[in-house]
Each structure stands twice: as structure tokens, then as C-alpha cells.
Amino acid sequence: MITIENLSKKYGSQIVLNIGELSIPTGQSFGLVGNNGAGKTTLFSLLLDLIQPTTGHIINNDVQVNTSEEWKPFTSSFIDETFLIGYLTPEEYFYFIGDLRGQNKADVDALLSEYQDFFHGEILGQKKYLRDLSKGNQKKAGIVASFIGNPKVVILDEPFANLDPTTQIRLKQIIKELAEKKDVTVLVSSHDLIHVTEVCERIVVLNKGEVVKDIQTSTETLKELEVFFAG
Amino acid sequence: MFKQFTSLQWKSFFRSSNLGKSLGIKILMGFFGVYMLVSLAGLGAGMYFILRKIFPDQSPMWSISQYFIYWVLIELFLRYFMQKLPVMDIKPFLTTPVKKSTIAHYILGRSAASIYNLLTLFFIIPFAIVLLFNSYPGLNVLLWVVAVMAIVLCINYLNLLINKNEKALIGIASILIIGYGLDYFGIFSIKELLAPVFHALYAYPITVLIPIVLAFGIYYINYKFLKDKIYLDAKLKSKKVEANTSDLAWTKRFGEMGSFLQLDLKMIWRNKRTKSQVFISLLFVFYGLIFYTVDVYSSMVPMKAFVGIFMTGIFLSNFGQFIPAWDSSYYSMMMSQNIPMRKYLESKVILISVSVVFMFLLTIPYVYFGWEALAINFGCALYNLGVNIPVILYFGSFNKKRIELDQSPFGNMQGTSATQFLIMLPVLVVPIILFSIFYYVFNIQVAVIVLSVLGVIGFAMKNYLLNLITEQYKRKKYGMIAGFKEKAS
């Protein structure tokens, strides 16, 4: 259960995020959509305590994010390529993350073997450093790394961008499977309305930092969103 | 076309975000630059008299010809590290109607105007002027200067051909060392062998053509080479190194810190900037020789404390001052991961401590200059371990500037801010002042003991200090994350 209360973030006089109240029950797959500058990444950064809220706070499974660090063991995320360590090979990166999350090599290997399809033979055993991989392949590595260590909350910012069609379809499958587990909460943001409506049970639309729509996904959702964004 | 390229280059320099920021550092660097040039020119002007004094029975021109080959080799060696290959952003031009030959000529032409080529001018012209005043024949001197400049250009383009080939570097270094060794032990004198060759450039003005033709030849080879490589997937693409995985299993012995230690070691080894820093640090072992061999310094004991702190702490200050900016490109990941900040810092402490001990072991041969040299270095190493490590980590928490790891460290001011200059104060100046006070009031033994005791006290309080520093890093976290995100600052 993630609860957001009176959360706002201001830069100077500009309010980039202002959410009165929002709660995400455990196990929900939560989609966040909005145009550029709507505050999606700001919200995710606040969830990860990478920036400080101007007012209010977020409570992630009984832990207040900006005062305690206890949320870290059960929360994992992939925001962008800056989450990768360029001079490591993908394997080394996975093992490093595994180390941080108390997983030994065998655990990590077992997890990775589930994602052979997703990697499409382009990640493991390539003798390449992460910095030398293509953007799409970097993303694949980052996304899978966020699944290491049985996290209870997974936060993915724009996971579909830069991926090829095959990988997008596989990623949708992966996120759906993840969401089916009762105790894993998945938070995904995207510009692609079709993808989000397919994988998320609930979709929240941000516009200029405010929640303007909060929808339980149904067959009409895509239409509704398209109408909204068409302006 | 050339004009447009030049104007683009100009804009890219003046509009880079690098330049807009931190005026103070720029002024300081400018000051250092001018100081360097002035001292270089001064050295050039004085060289005539210096050579006169060292080798009274031969013409300075002959002396300089003798050492010419060493200068060529040393310059090749240094340039390998210092000179950046001249790449401009060619990508946008590939699809425009610009001839590839024009691009190639421009890239090569621009490297001729490199600052490293100008440095030699600053040395050679004052030297030539002094020669003229000492009634050396004008034409010969003038053409000799031209010949030297041609040789400089040869070196310049040769360096481009070598193109960061480590084997060539090792070749140059071994020729240099073996040649000097043979000379030194009087087995075979390369300098005597080649002195007439270089002296001929002065004695027979017509020979100026040889280096000029050589320079054009090397330029042409470069041009041929470059022109065929102006494709996205050839020359322009940065080299991809095949990853060599190593699991460094022994780091596991350090428990939780092991994974960070492993990460740091990989970072140092796999990135250009950190890797060169290790080599530079190693070279600084010889720094003390200046102070121990030159008579002027032999009576200035505090200077020896300075080199002691410096030599054993070179990696400490070079690497330590940029903690945690080394991890800047992925700092937000580190901060959202399940990372105990204290373990992260502790692993840095271990790494730096090992470097201090290692550097101290390397300085042991200074015992040749007397036991007190060893004692001073030992005291300094202890002080570095106990006091300077916490100090530098504490100041590290003020770092907010991003570092791109793949860039060369020379003249690279990335990550540098006022913090870096402030750090030098406590790290270098404080111990030297302490040492001087106790040395002049009491004696050298007391001074060494004071430094050692301070080091031991710091070491004993390590846990307490580290806790304080950890808190400080937690407080500064948001500023660091925001600062590290700003690219190229």
C-alpha cells in the first residue's frame, strides 16, 4: 500500500507536482500517463526519495519515504540509463544489484534464466560493457535488474520507450505476470496509451502536476484517454 | 568551408556549458597557463647560459643537439597522454555536400595549431634570440628554428598515427629508458651518435628540408588514413573495448564492503580517467628525488614533510577529492538502491588506505638519503591514514559536479570546483605547518612523532568520524543527486 498525502513539489514559484491524496493498494498495477512536463518523473523521483517534497509525504508500506530508508529493501526501480553502471558488463551489473539485495550469484542466475526470451540473446555473454550496448538493450538490462531480489514495489519510468516491437510485447507479458502476483505493486509510466491500458488495472492521468483522471481500466478506457489527450 | 568549420569550432568552445560556469576556476587556470608560458620562455632564454655552465667546453648548440633525441622521445611519450585526438563533431557533415578530403584536411590542419605545438615555440624562440645576441649566424639559427618546428609537427602527426596504441607507447618508453641507461652506464652513447645528425640542422641550413619533407610525408599518411575512415562505423565511432570479466572473488573477504570495493576496482581499471590517475600517482614516487637531491632543499626539512605527505597521499588526494563524484553518472541508482551509506564510504576508506600503505612501501628506497627520510615518510603516511582520509571524505560531501569517466584526466577540470582548492588546505598545508612548528621548536624526532600520534588518534577515532561523515553524506544527498545530473558541468 502506497499512500500519498498533500504531496507537492515547487521549483521557485513553479508548481511541478501537486497531489492532494492518492493511494495505491498492494498488488495493483498502476499506470501513470501525461504529456511532457506533467510531473510523472517527479512523482517517481519523490517515491524513490531522489528529490525532497516541498510539502506532504509518501508512505510506502508503512514507511515514510523521506524520513526513513526502510523502504529500500522492498522497492526497486528503473528510471533511466543513469541507473546503469556503464563500465560493468550486464552480468556484473546484475550480480552487483543482487549483492545489494542479498541475492547470491545462483539466485541471480536463476532469475536471469527466466528472461532469456526477453533478452533475445543480446544481453548476456556479449563481452560488452553496458555503456557500449544500444539504448534499447541498456533498457532491457535495467528493467530486468529491477526484478532482482523479489521486490514488493517495482517502479518503471517509460519502460516501453526505445524498445523494439518484439521486446515491447514481451515486456507487456512480463509486467502482466508480475501484476498477477498478489503482493507485487507495479508502477509504470508511459506515453503510449495502448500499452498502459493493456497492462495496468488502473490509470492515473497527470496534467501540469495535478491528477486529472483516475480510471479503473475497462474496454472504454483507451477511447476515453484518446479523447482526453486529443484535447 | 574552412572558415565555417573554424567558426563552428569557435562556437562549440565558447558556448560549451563548461565555459560559462565557475569563472573563478577559469581565472585561476588562466593564471597557471600564463605562469607556465612565462617560465617556459624564461627557461628557453636561460638555457644558453645553463648549458654554458654545465658543459663549459662545448657549444650550447652541440649540447642541445645531444639531448635532442631524448626531447623527441619524451615529447612523444607525454603527448600520448596529454594530446586529445582532434575530432570534431563530423556526423552532421556526412550528409551535407562537403568533400571528405576537406573534412580530413581540416581535422589534421587544426591539430597543427594545438597548444602543445605552441609550447615548443615558447621555449625555442627565446633560446634562438639569445643565440643571435651571442653572434651565432642569423640564417642558420632561423632555419634551425624552422627545422625544430617541423620536427614538432612530425611528432604531432606521428602521435596521431600512433593513435593511442599502447604497444607503441611501451616501445617509446623502453627505447627511452634503455637509451638513457646505455648512456648513463657509458656502454653505448645514443646521444653522441645522434648529436651530429641534429647539429647538422643548424650547421647546414639546407638540411632544414629534411624535417619539412618528413612532416609533409607523415601528414600525407595521416590524411590518406583519415580520409578513408570518415564513416560512421569506422574512425568516428569510439572504440569499443571487449569486456574482460573478472569476478575479483577475493574482495568477498571484506563482507558487505566487498561488492563496493569490487565496483571501485573495476571503475578504476576500466575508465580512462581513473586509470591514468593511478599511473600518475605511481610516477609521483619520484617526486621526492627533486627535494632530496637538490642542495637548496637539503637544509629545508619541512619541505621533506611536504613531499612525504604528497608522495604517500597522492592517490588519496587525486582519487579522494572527487568522492563520490566518481559514481556521479549512476548516483541516483545508488541512492535508491538498498545501500548502507556507511559501507559505501568504508569501502572507499579501505581502498585509499591500501594506496597510502602501498605508496609508503614504494618510498622506502628513500632510506638511501638517511633514516630520517624514512621516518618522515612513515609519519606522513600515518597522518594520511588517520587524519587526511576522514578529512578528504568529509570534503567530498561538498562535491556536486558530475564526472564523465571516459575522458582523459589531463587538463580535465570536470568535477572541479572551489571544493578541490579548499581541500588542499587541510590535507597538505596543515600537516606541514604542524611539522614545521614542532621541528623548529624541538627537533625532527618530535615533529615526526607528532604527525604519527595524530595519525594514530585519527585511526582510533575512525568509527566515530565515519559516523559523522555518513550523516553529512545523507544530509547532502539531494544536492548531490541534482548536481550530478547536470551534464558537462
Automatic annotation (TrEMBL), chain A:
Which residue intervals define the domain ABC transporter in the entry? 2-230
Q: Does the keyword Nucleus apply?
A: no
- Keyword check for ATP-binding, yes or no: yes
GO MF annotation: an example: ATP binding
* InterPro entries attached to this UniProt entry: AAA+_ATPase, ABC_transporter-like_ATP-bd, ABC_transporter-like_CS, ABC_Transporter_VariousFunc, P-loop_NTPase
| Domain of life, source organism | Bacteria
**Key words, A-Z:** ATP-binding, Nucleotide-binding, Transport
Q: What protein is this chain from?
A: ABC-2 type transport system ATP-binding protein
Q: Which organism is it from?
A: Maribacter arcticus
TrEMBL record, chain B:
* Record has Transmembrane helix as a keyword: yes
Q: Which UniProt keywords apply?
A: Membrane, Transmembrane, Transmembrane helix
Regions that span the bilayer = 27-51, 63-82, 115-136, 142-162, 169-190, 202-221, 276-294, 306-326, 347-368, 374-396, 417-440, 446-466
> Which InterPro entries does the entry link to?
DUF5687
| Presence of keyword S-adenosyl-L-methionine | no
What range does the record give for the signal peptide?
none
Q: What is this protein called?
A: ABC-2 type transport system permease protein
Q: Which organism is it from?
A: Maribacter arcticus
